[in-house]
Amino acid sequence: MNIVVCVKYVPDAQGDRTFEADHTTDREGVDGLLSELDEYAVEEALKIVEAGEGEVTVLTMGPADAVGAVKKSLQMGAHKGVHVSDEAIAGSDAVATSLVLAEAVKKIGTVDLVLTGLASTDGSMSVVPAMLAERLGLPQVTFASELSVEGGTVRIRRDSETASETVESSLPAVVSVTDQINEPRYPSFKGIMAAKKKPVETWSLADLGIDPAQVGLAAAWSTVETVTARPPRSAGEVVADEGQGGVALADFLASRKFV
């Protein structure tokens, strides 16, 4: 089974994330890493292949540093990687992102399954899997908390607040997974060393036959007009309990309409 996992290199949530003058995310002034939610997709792909046979290819797009997401995935056990890197990509929205990823998947070749995370931790839109499936002409099953592949069928369990659904689709298909599906492995020393010898291809928009005018900030369907930094958290109120602490707590909760 040939599986492609789409991953993203995102700013570290523990760092001070900022925006560029054009209101796009600053990806140069903060350390980046493989999106945490994408680790679950990589792990699930590895489990499927290890239970049978096949190959896992990780795919990302972004600036030069974005190859870090591919390298981490290779260290986890993926077999090879593809990095789409082109200056024209900067500022691309979900529509353009799905276009680039779709053309890259087509160039990779025959694929049985395309896996993605629930969302990227910087964008949190969750729409790229559906857009990607539409561009590839494949069925999509999303928000998988459990996944199994048997023969030419993929079956998932999707959990909501009120019910759990079992959904299945013929292969090939696009599947997005949640952070409930598994526990991603940590790269071992052996895996880190082996990753250095695994192939990583770098493709441009020209390699994919994509017109630069179709991607980037100028082609985005929406525009961020203003950005305001979140104000620092104010110090909380300290109440000295001299017998009236319970009353003070009740008054506080009532003032916030919690009770």
How would you explain this protein's 3D organization?
This protein has 259 residues and is an alpha/beta fold. The protein has helices at residues 36-51, 67-76, 94-108, 128-136, 189-195, 205-208, 245-255; strands at residues 2-6, 9-11, 32-34, 55-61, 80-84, 113-116, 140-144, 146-150, 153-159, 164-170, 173-177, 200-203. It is built from seven helices and twelve strands. The strands form three sheets. A seven-stranded parallel sheet has the order 7-11-6-1-4-5-12, with helices on both faces. Strands 8-9-10 form a three-stranded antiparallel sheet, with no helix packed on it. The radius of gyration is 22 Å and the shape is globular.
Main features:
28% helix; 7-stranded parallel beta sheet; 259 residues; 12 strands; Rossmann fold; 3-stranded antiparallel beta sheet; globular
Give me the secondary-structure topology:
Layout: E1 2-6, E2 9-11, E3 32-34, H1 36-51, E4 55-61, H2 67-76, E5 80-84, H3 94-108, E6 113-116, H4 128-136, E7 140-144, E8 146-150, E9 153-159, E10 164-170, E11 173-177, H5 189-195, E12 200-203, H6 205-208, H7 245-255
Helix pairs in contact: 2-5, 3-4
